[in-house]
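Quiz preparation item.
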């Protein structure tokens, strides 16, 4: 029974989400209906735009508008609208090009009112999803039997992808609801901020332990496997990579698709050589199937 907006800005931390007040809804509807008359298209431009929406990375990736029930204006909006980079994704059959990008600008202004520290100007860098350069094959050589197999199709299903973040994926633990697992929540140690030291305390509370680089290439206790932690500079967001049975590393940026290549499209063989842009490496950790992940 509300109209809410989610700003897609984080990978690990939950994205800011808020309900709109009735007076704000009318302004938003104006921007939406202006775009509802935007140019519908099935061209390469739309196809590439939808890739940006649905195969996201780290950092700002637009907004999602959701309307439910009998909220004021809800009858004038589809249940879910995604907006980013000149594309308004109303449904699989109603994606449109918004050349003015007014709707996205209006949403950014609403976000700034809640987060005054963010830039006044909406980021204009358009994310280009990486095309993994190596061949994806169904049967990959198993190097470590105690590591999770790389099976992105399980994580990229429509009913799963938005519910799980990088921490779920790193721990190979599916969520049934919510916006993704939070470090420390399983061990009742609420994460106060996002420094490397804070994350270490939170991970230890969840049952994880620090791991040396020399341990990445051997069998680990408790059928555990290594994960790599990164923290965004000047922010509280975090991101995780995990080592798979192939010996390579993979990750899942927020509510987007899991993949085993970095933003350059290269296989991740050493996480420290492929850090997410704007994030710093904070060390390796040992997780296992008995870790408390919530």
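Solution:
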């Amino acid at each position: 029974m509300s109209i809410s907006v989610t700003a897609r800005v984080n990978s690990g931390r939950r994205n800011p989400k808020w309900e709109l007040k009735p007076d704000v809804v009318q302004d938003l509807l104006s921007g939406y209906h202006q775009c509802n008359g935007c140019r519908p298209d099935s061209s390469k431009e739309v196809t590439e735009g939808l890739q940006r929406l649905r195969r996201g990375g780290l950092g700002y990736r637009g907004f999602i508008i959701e309307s439910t029930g009998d909220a004021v204006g809800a009858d004038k909006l589809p249940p879910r609208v995604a907006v980013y980079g000149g594309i308004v994704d109303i449904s699989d059959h109603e994606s449109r090009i918004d050349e003015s990008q007014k709707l996205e600008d209006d949403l950014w202004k609403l976000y700034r009112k809640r987060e005054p520290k963010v830039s006044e100007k909406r980021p204009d860098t358009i994310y280009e999803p990486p095309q993994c350069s190596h061949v994806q094959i169904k049967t990959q050589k198993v190097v470590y039997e105690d590591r999770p197999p790389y099976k992105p199709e399980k994580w990229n299903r429509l009913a799963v992808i938005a519910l799980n973040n990088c921490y779920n994926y790193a721990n190979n633990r599916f969520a049934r609801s919510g916006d993704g697992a939070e470090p420390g929540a399983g061990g009742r140690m609420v994460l106060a901020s996002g420094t490397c030291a804070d994350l270490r305390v939170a991970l230890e509370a969840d049952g994880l332990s620090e791991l040396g680089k020399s341990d990445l290439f051997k069998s680990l206790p408790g059928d555990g496997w290594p994960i790599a932690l990164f923290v965004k500079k000047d922010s509280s967001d975090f991101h995780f990579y995990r080592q798979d049975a192939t010996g390579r590393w993979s990750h899942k940026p927020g509510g987007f698709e899991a993949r085993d290549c970095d933003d350059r499209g290269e296989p991740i063989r050493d996480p420290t050589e492929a850090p997410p842009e704007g994030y710093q490496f904070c060390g390796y950790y040992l997780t296992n199937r008995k870790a408390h992940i919530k």
